[in-house]
Amino acid sequence: MRDDWQQKRQEWSAKSKYNSFNSYKGLTYLESHYNPIAKWWKKESDTIPAPIELSLDPGHLCNFKCQHCNAQRYLVHNPNEVPEDRKLMSEEHLRKIIDFCAEWGVRGVCIGGGGEPLMNKAVWNLPSYIKNKGMQSSFATNGSLINEKIAEEMMNCRWVGVSVDAGTKEVFNRVHGFADENLEKIENVKEIFEKMYGKTEENIKLFEKIQQSLNEKDENQNNNLFEKVIDGLKLLVKKKKETGSKIDIAYKFLIRPDNWQDIYNACKLAKEIGVRDFHARPADLQRKDFKNAMELNYNLDEIHRLFIRCHDLEDENFRVFTIMHKYDPEFKIMHTFCNCVSSPLMLQACSDGNVYVCADHRLEPRFKLCSHFPDPSEILKIWGTDQHRELLKLIKVDKECGRCTYGEYARQIEEMTMDSKEEDPMCIDFP
Q1: Does 233 share its domain with 217?
Q2: pLDDT digit string, tens, across residues 320-340
Q3: How far is CA 287 from the centre of its chain?
Q4: How many C-beta neighbours within 10 Å does residue 397 have?
Q5: Which of 85, 214, 278, 377 has the fewest CB atoms within 10 Å, counting from its CB?
Q6: What's the average model confidence in pLDDT over 388-397?
Q7: Are residues 144 and 182 in the same domain?
Q8: pTM to 2 decimals?
Q9: Is position 339 within any domain?
Q10: Do 277 and 340 fall into the same domain?
Q11: Domain that residue 206 falls in
Q12: Residue 109 placed within a domain
């Protein structure tokens, strides 16, 4: 991880240091994956092991319009990029790819990615199916569609992350694309009106009525989505208590220039709901395919003060993770590695029928590895081949990539197994 981070800022408490977000867990993959990948990369071997995780995108549809989402290119700006018959993966094929991965040796399945996964009803019963195949599952969701049936099934998951990205309804609507643009226009008209006619009580009441009318319209249009998401989280907490499930439920917060002020409100709400984890990190607003760039005008000192307040809320039942080590101190992307060597740790399968080299380059033809539809076993014809290796070697990380989900694992592979002059720098056979 960025070596100076823990000296300056806090990402998690000392008692929570062994957690899912700690990239040092990658060291547990040294023998099973890091060493084989390094040998394969250097052409000292012709094979690599099965990936640890299947990142499964069951659909390319979404009921939100989050401007920061890495799927906006094909969900909003170019919706015809994915053919209609490939926007949702069939239940038959979902089970087929899970069967294949279970037999191959994949350990976990993350259901999420390129849209809202719960819009595909075929995944509603998937966690128990995955569990019966001997693998673990997880969901990354916006939480707006969680109901009794889904919540019950999610109790089979290792974790569920709900992307709320706000602590209040106003911020939630703005971040997720539901803010009424008319309200901003009314504020502009109000400012001009008051300059011309003064700030009288009559004028104030007039604009209050207009704003109230627009707010009512907004509530009807968006069907109180913020409340629905919070109710979904509450339902998950309730089901966990009833079933005794070991699931970790996370209230997730992607930090943007227009929502960071709401971090503490969100963390406090997360604790009140009763979730296990609150997880905050910067949104990747420097992706190479990002068309609607935002100015990165964060008040970093104030954000870190809010982080401290959040960590003060921790107790034995509530953990706070403010994950920054994949970014530089100004929340800008930072690559601590040179090559795309961690890609084989994960298989990115999308609803369009294709496999891509990673979750950060979904549905980008340049990064297509192969197809998994109609027969997932076809993946084995390309996995670990010279063609696979050359595709990864041609990727120019600094020029083509934004934040890398597995970047710290790539750094570990390079530093421990490729750059080191020693074959066994940590003497792993000696505890």
Answers
A1: no
A2: 999 998 888 888 888 999 999
A3: 14
A4: 14
A5: 85
A6: 97
A7: no
A8: 0.88
A9: yes
A10: yes
A11: 177-222
A12: yes
